[in-house]
Amino acid sequence: MSERDAYIQKAKAQLDQWNAEIDKLEARAREASADGELAYRETLHDLRGKRDALEQRIEDTHKSGEAAWSDMRAGMDAAWKNLSEALEKAQSRFG
């Protein structure tokens, strides 16, 4: 397995974990008061946008050749960090 394939596999596994965390936040949003639910919904919208951007990067990286891998990795790392930080912030805010 190439480094690129291993990275993509790791990213997909982490994305699955983050999707589960987003689902937990969504469940909490349904139980929150009206004001709390709005805050959850805004946060969930932001998280889903970041998740979708990372999913697209993963897909683009998967389709790319080995030569483009090093160029694409920086963008994928940035998207990964962006989603990770946003999820941590949401969990601490609503946890």
UniProtKB/TrEMBL annotation:
<keyword id="KW-0175">Coiled coil</keyword>
<feature type="coiled-coil region">
    <location>
        <begin position="8"/>
        <end position="64"/>
    </location>
</feature>
<protein>
    <recommendedName>
        <fullName>Coiled coil domain-containing protein</fullName>
    </recommendedName>
</protein>
